[in-house]
Automatic annotation (TrEMBL):
Species annotation: Actinoplanes aureus
Record-stated family: Belongs to the ROK (NagC/XylR) family.
Protein name, UniProt field: ROK family protein
């Protein structure tokens, strides 16, 4: 039996609250649910019978004897349906079919230019979703939820991208409505770095209450876990570290950023800026991956620019560390692949500029999930949203 927690208030322990227990424990008996909620046996029986009838909970063998017959055990039915997730980047995307726990079962990866616009991109996403469903022998009716993350600022409540620097045609586009005629399920839209933060946090650092995820790819962004939950700010704009403006000593003219301002962190240290500076230095590269390949060869100019990018990123991260005091800073995105050249500058600036108390226990690490962190995190965010306690009764009514 799981360790008893303080009983939930009887008035609030509805179907959704009981289902949450089954989502967090492998199996439970009726007695377990009574102990964890403080509900009476008759009320637990009522809640459990409703969840069994809706196939959200299923029998799962017998429990240990309690002086009489073995207690029946039950488990969350993670195979009742599927979730579809798309992690969209500037130049590529990953799509996945997941079970209802948010565990990835099948995934695809392909190149994609997000600047071609929402209609083209979402059509490609839907084609990938249909291929995943066909491979799994599932139908559109089996889809309980869709999760989309994008490389731009997102109004989370409305599910809309707002004034994205690199996503032409996406401003306030109704992503949810695009999928409405194709799937009868909720659609969750979030910023890619928020999803990455959740993926790293839940998979690698579940005990850490404050975590900062920094993505350094074509652009630069950040996601924050505060008190164990994603922090999006009042309007979903929290974490836009790439557009903090800095004064850099070795630069006479501040570079123009894709957002239209000058001197942004991203305009100095983003992947696109690295490509720009390498070309200006006579090193012809056309993509971020080509720039990284040149850095790995040890080219003196490329390595110098990478280390400079690390120090500039470290400057911005140091400010965030002083403000948020995270326990872990995770660096992801394409530039995390050049850890040796990038991280030295980041660590140098963070430990030089941040308060000693804020860095005393700080860990700065490369992503452990690599390019899958956004996909993994978006699936978990979607599962949590679909099965939020206040939504479970509506889910049962809709699926009956």
């Amino acid at each position: 039996m799981p360790t008893p927690a303080p009983p939930l208030a009887v008035a609030t322990a509805g179907l959704g609250d009981v289902l949450q227990l089954f989502r967090t424990e492998p199996t439970l008996t009726r007695a377990d649910v009574m102990a964890l909620t403080g509900l009476s046996r008759s009320t637990v029986n009522q809640r459990l019978d409703a969840l069994l009838a809706a196939a959200l909970v299923v029998p799962s063998g017998e429990g240990a004897p309690t002086g009489g017959r073995p207690a029946s055990r039950f488990a969350f039915n993670s195979e009742r349906g599927v979730l579809l997730v798309a992690d969209i980047g500037a130049t590529g995307m990953r799509t996945a079919l997941c079970n209802l726990r948010g565990e990835v079962r099948q995934e695809h990866e392909q190149s994609l230019d997000v600047a071609t616009g929402p209609d083209i991109v979402l059509s490609v996403v839907d084609e990938a979703f249909r291929a995943l469903l066909a491979e799994a022998g599932r139908a559109a009716a089996d889809v309980h939820g869709i999760g989309i993350d994008v490389p731009g600022p997102v109004d989370f409540d409305r599910g809309q991208v707002v004034s994205p620097p690199i996503m032409s045609g996406w401003d306030r586009y109704d992503i949810r409505a695009w999928f409405a005629g194709r799937y009868d399920c909720p659609v969750l839209v979030d910023k890619d770095v928020n999803a990455m933060a959740v993926g790293e946090h839940r998979s690698l650092y579940p005990e850490v209450r404050q975590l900062l995820m920094v993505k350094v790819g074509t652009g630069v962004g950040a996601g924050m876990i505060i008190d164990g939950e994603v922090f999006r700010g009042a309007d979903g704009a929290a974490g836009d570290i790439g557009h903090i403006q800095l004064t850099v000593d070795d630069t006479d003219n501040e570079p123009v950023c894709r957002c239209g301002n000058t001197g942004c962190v991203e305009a100095y240290a983003g992947g696109w800026a690295l490509v720009r500076d390498l070309n200006a230095a006579g090193r012809p590269v056309s993509t971020v991956q080509e720039a990284l390949a040149l850095i790995r060869t040890g080219d003196v100019t490329a390595v110098r620019l990478a280390r400079r990018a690390g120090r500039i990123l470290g400057h911005a991260i140091a400010d965030a560390v002083s403000l948020l005091n995270p326990g872990v800073v995770v660096i992801g995105g394409q530039l995390a692949q050049i850890e040796e050249q990038l991280f030295a500058g980041i660590r140098e600036m963070v430990y030089r500029r941040s308060l000693p108390l804020a860095t005393r226990k700080l860990s700065i690490a490369a992503t452990a999930l690599g390019p899958r962190s956004g996909l993994v995190g978006m699936a978990l965010l979607l599962a949590d949203s679909i099965f939020a306690a206040h939504r479970v009764e509506g889910l049962i009514a809709r699926r009956d």
